[in-house]
Structure formats: C-alpha cells, structure tokens
Amino acid sequence: MIRKMRAFILIIFMISQGILWGQTDDFHREIMEMMALKGDEVTASVSFHEVFPKLQRNFANKKIEPEVWQELQNDEAEQVNEYLAQGAFAYRQFLSREEVRSLSNFYASDAGQKYAMQQGLGSKDEKVVDQFFKTQAGQKIIEKSDSIALALDQIKNEWSETLFKKKMRQLIKGGHLKN
Hints:
By secondary structure, the chain is mainly α. The protein has one domain. Helix content is 83%, strand content 0%. The protein has helices at residues 2-38, 40-58, 66-72, 76-92, 97-108, 110-116, 123-134, 136-173. The N and C termini lie far apart (72 Å). Mean pLDDT is 86; it is low at 16-24.
C-alpha cells in the first residue's frame, strides 16, 4: 500500500512540475515578446554589430577576408534571441505575468511604440502614456525601472563579452591567428 502511495505521489509531483515548467516557459516567452515590442531586440542587434569593430582591431595585422567577417555575423538572429532570453530574467525578477501583459499591450499601442522609441508624443499619445503609468503595472515599472535597467545592463555586458569571446574563438579555429 505504501509503495502504491509513493508512486502516486511521485506521479502527481512530476505532473505538477511539468505544468509549472510549461507555465514558466510561456511566461518567459511573453517577456521576450514584450522586450521585442519595447525595442530591446533592436538594441541587441546594434550591440551585436558593435562587437565586430573590436574584433577587427584585435586582428588588424591579419589579412582576414571580408567574407569571413560576414560569415561571423550570420548568426545575428540567434545571438539576439539569446540576449532576449537572458534579459527576460531581469523583468521576471521584478514583474508578474499580468504586469508583463499590461506592458506588452502598452508597447503594442501607437503611443507605447512612440514612447519606447523616444519619439515626440502628441497630446493624445501623452494622455495614453500618462494613463498607463497610473496603472498598477505602470507604477511597478516606475518603482522597479532602475533595478531592471541595472540587471539588463549587467546581462547585456555579459552577453556582449561572451559573444566577443565566441567570435574570437571562431577566428582562431578558422586559422586566422596564423596569418
């Protein structure tokens, strides 16, 4: 009887963990989508391209063909997605799923896009932005914006450093250190 009970409890535990894991993945994906709406995807793309002049300075005395540099940049989408996946933890740490949904809805609006891209806001858009920041989610963003920005900055720096090292290794493996 005890063995059957243990097996039953183990099965229930595994099912509940699977459900929680699935929800975690969905929440993470929702954060990544919100980050893309907010413009973090564009920012990561710019940061991706900033790595290559640094690499080129390190390999300035090597005769590396332009095609090699181009090939190193072929995984941009994958690398940007990696940054978004890592960056999502900064938001996850401070915001609930409902707050992330509110942010996504805000950033999906015309006023939210103008706000995110730091474009001029007309009076109608200003009202929408002001209304959003009076909501619970808006207040939470105001309260946690410095902490989120600090966490994102740290994640971005670590991601950029890892990317630099990865591309450096690719150049070395390709035999470009010997030229």
